[in-house]
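Reopening: BTAD domain-containing putative transcriptional regulator still failing for me.
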Amino acid sequence: MEFGVLGAVTAWDDDGRPVDLKGARHRAVLARLIIARGRLVPASRLVDDLWEDPPDGALSAVRTFVASLRRALEPDRPPRTPARLLVTEGPGYALRTDAVDAWRFEKAMASGRLDELTEALALWRGPAYADFADEGWAQAERARLTELRLRAVERQAEARLAAGLAAEAVPELDAHVTEHPWREEAWRLLALALYRTGRQGDALAVLRRAREMLVDQLGVDPGTALGRLETDILNQAEHLEPASAGRVWEEAAAAYDRTVGPRARLESTVGLLRNLAVTGGGGLEAARRHRLAAVSAAEELGDADLTARVIGAYDVPAIWTRSDDESQAAGIVAAAERALRTQEHPAARARLLATIALESRGSTAPRAAAAAQEAEQLARGLDDPALLAFALNGVFMQSCGRAGLAPRRDAVGAELVELSQRHGLLTYEVLGHLIRLQALSALDDFPSADDHAAAADELAARHELPLVAVFTTWYRAMRQDTPDAYRHAATLLDGAGMPGLQEGLLPLALAGHSIRHGQPVPEADYGPYQPWLQPLGPVPEPPPGLLLEVLWCVTAHTARERGDDQLLARARTALAPAAGQLAAGSALVTLGPVADYL
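Support: Ran it again with your exact input. Result attached.
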């Protein structure tokens, strides 16, 4: 069910057909609940909002409106079963939905991308809450959404200018300033768009018209931005022309290549690889392929400090606890251990130790957890938020050594989010949200997990971090827990450059679905999970990682099927610390409540 308030208040069913919402007061109740954004609205408040002078029986009328809306919004709901959308809470009602066009508009606008801004503006069918323009309870929200729409028009124009589409921006900006002549930013953008299409005279005329409009009709002087733009146009200032990203890159790269030596190039290379890694796909594979080569090149130069910097500079946030390339990871760990022997500075040591903790993911060796602990201790004694975030990533990676540690991981994720928001560490803020998404899934707090998935998606859309969608899409597939949902999510792994995540994940998810629904485990290529799903001999201990509880639950299932009491006892002992949790700490695959297997 979709709800629309960017125009007349309406609703559409899953096939896109309008829903019959009955009379004006029925729609008013729905609109009032949408404005509340999921919060409780007391029935007495609805009475006051619907009538200036409430008649006798107004409260009963509100209940009638709510009942009618429920029938319209959930026509297939069986009798006497609780409503899912329009719910009763204490003394009032709340609407439980995320499917509101105004909220989609806000999310798309936040991204700043031209395509999303264009789609967002297309959602508008007229003035917001058009059929309740005179209602006091709607006025603040109408004003807020109207202002957002005006800003969206201007941000769309900015995006077009940045993309070299100045001619496309002119017609809508011209209409925009005609309808809203007090918006100086719109005048500035229109003049700049005209200038970039070769219409310098028209651009200057627009600026004169803006000045006259503001002074004569509104009695205010134009701001400095308009005056500065007029001067720049008259001088044909170079900065008014759109920069060519390719030209800037080529000129800067050529200048850099002429002026720096091999050591600076190596450190810069790691910076490029770090940025390349977060793009996913071929970028991540290329970064992984060249990283060890960069470390080896630094070691060959015989500069221990340079080697330590090259190793520690690759602070790419990591969320999955199985390595994509175990051989390369071992090489990085060995190089970091060698570099540690000559490093005394706490920051350099912390970076090397955090690297060891991250690259030793899945290891049962005590050294990995000890490195994570020491890196955290060193980082907390330094005034370096980015270093602390890197160290906390290592702590997270080493927090899966036994079942039931979701609360510890949730605390790490919460600190990462708070630290990153204070210091502008974007990629670590995303990491923190994903860690909390995983931990809260294990703790059976899906409403909060949903919030963190949405926050991660919003940041990823705004800053072009495509790998985030892999994890949030898989999370939503796990929430649905259907084979089709898992198969759809698996398509995002093709070409994502994460073999450590991809190998065997879809078959494991489908096997988990079969186990939960009392069906036989299907024959499949389970890759690294074969020893637990189709064991050919003794079942080994599952390795540390986010799938630890899942694999122990599979082990318990296998033991029960075999009648293997000894194996069952091992599984029971291993799973006992997670007795009150779900085997869903990966936020990708679920085996349901751990207690079911105990």
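Residues 136-162 form the longest helix (27 residues). If you still see a failure, please send the error message rather than a screenshot.
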